[in-house]
Every structure is written in C-alpha cells, then in structure tokens.
Amino acid sequence: MNKHGILIERGDLLNNKYIVLSHIASGGMSGVYLIEEKNNPDKRWAVKITSMTNKMAAKLKDEARLLSELHHSNLPHVVDFFQTEEYFYLVQEYVEGVSLSDQMALYNNQLPMETILQIGIELCDVLHYLHNQKPYPIIYRDIKPGNIMMMSNQSIKLIDFGIARRFQDNLLHDTVQVGTVGFAAPEQFEKKQTDSRTDLFSLGALLYYLVSKGKYVYIAQKPVRDFNKIMPKHLEKCINQLVQLQPEDRLQDAREAKILLLKAKEELEKPPNILQRLLRF
C-alpha cells in the first residue's frame, strides 16, 4: 500500500490487460506503477492510479483527457485510461530518465551551460505547442525541476499535467492558488488570471535556478549575472525579460524566448575571447 492507500501489488492484473511489475513513485494525488501488457510483455507503460474516493480523482481524469489530445516529442503520450469502482487509471508512456531535480542533486547543482540552454530551448518548443492549442490554449502552470525528465539522449519530457488548464479569456481570475513556490509567477498566488505569460515567468525562474546553481529568483533578489560572470549575454537578457513581476512586462511568446536562447547558444559556441579565458583561471 502506498501513501494514498492504493491496494495495488506486483502481479495484479489491471483491466484484464496490464500486469503490475513494480511501484515507481507516489505523487501529490496518485501512485505510479510500472506495468506490462499481458499479451505483449515487451510493451511496458507507466500507470498513474488514484482512488475514486480521493477528491483529486477528477483532476487525474482531466489530465487524462487533456494529454490524450496532445502529441509532441517532449510530452509523454497517453496509451489508455479507465476506471473501476475503486480507482481511476491513466496509462502512459514510461519515461526512462532522471528528473531534473535529481540531476541537479547528482551534479551538485552545477549543470553545463550547453545543457541548460538545451533544456530552455526544448521547453520553449513544448510551451509554444501548448499555448497554441485550439480552441483554447493550454497553460501548464507548474514548470519546475521535478516535472522535467532528462532522457539518456539529453532531450526532455515535461510530465505531470495535474494543474494544467485550458485558458479562457472571459475568466477574471483562477478559482484556486496553484503552482510551486520558487517557480510560480506572482499572479498564481494572488488568484489572478493565469495565461501563457505565467508559464513564461516559470521558464525564466527555472533558467535562473539552473544558472545560479540552485538559487530562487524570489529569494536571491540578485541579478542572475552575479552568479555566473561569463554566461551568454542573450541568456541573461532572456531570463531578465521572463521574470518580470507584471505579465505585460515579460516576453509575450515562447518563440521570443527561444530566439534569445538560440542566440545564447551561438555565443557559447564561439571561441572564447582573451577576457573570458582569463576569467576561467
């Protein structure tokens, strides 16, 4: 039994189709298990399970419906979802990787600048995809290291759409305060309307965290340049324009951020000048 009281064990058969292999993790509203298909053991998936008595079960249902409509290389694809009297099940791609939070811990909060830029560029791509869904954009609302999986090829997967929602501009404010302290935009804690610019603030806060070796923009209250004297200027510009407190003062589109990050990548790939060489020693 996991912390949510879910009575699922190794060898259990789900929906007469999936065999439970092991417990992977427990999240805020569900347990996650590794499963294989009964008639095709080579096919392995991850299943998120929540109790139907859990008030968060409706959110997992919403996540299942939302993800089932999305197809992007940086998102886990949904295979199946179903429910019994006891539980709701969301079967999706098993992401074999390590979370960015674990990656940071493993490397003492110091990631190569090339890796940081690649994470930022791929997040820009997936955010642009989400923000341009029709008829309503999808606002992710929870960008943080724990929700980003690093794959063996160094690409990323954005996981856990538990608090994502479709944006409707006739809403004046959100009904609840959501987000993770340290990465959430100010409007998420003021119950104001969240939109695509909310995700862009979180992108900036994440980049700040990665460049500063684990500092939160709210708490540090310092220019990001103070933590890395030789960071690409376009990366600094990107971060500064993303973490503005007022949504209208931020970059307004993920493509704008991607352009700056690509320019930062070009800077990084140029041979270092004499001053940069001296600063490294």
TrEMBL record:
Recorded catalytic reaction(s): these are: L-threonyl-[protein] + ATP = O-phospho-L-threonyl-[protein] + ADP + H(+); L-seryl-[protein] + ATP = O-phospho-L-seryl-[protein] + ADP + H(+)
Q: What class of enzyme is it?
A: transferase
InterPro entries under this entry?
Answer: Kinase-like_dom_sf (IPR011009), Prot_kinase_dom (IPR000719), Ser/Thr_kinase_AS (IPR008271)
**Catalytic activity, EC:** 2.7.11.1
UniProt keyword terms in alphabetical order: ATP-binding, Kinase, Nucleotide-binding, Serine/threonine-protein kinase, Transferase
A Pfam family it matches: Pkinase
Give a yes or no for keyword Transcription in this entry. Answer: no
One GO molecular function term? protein serine/threonine kinase activity
Q: What name does UniProt use for this protein?
A: non-specific serine/threonine protein kinase
Organism name: Oceanobacillus zhaokaii
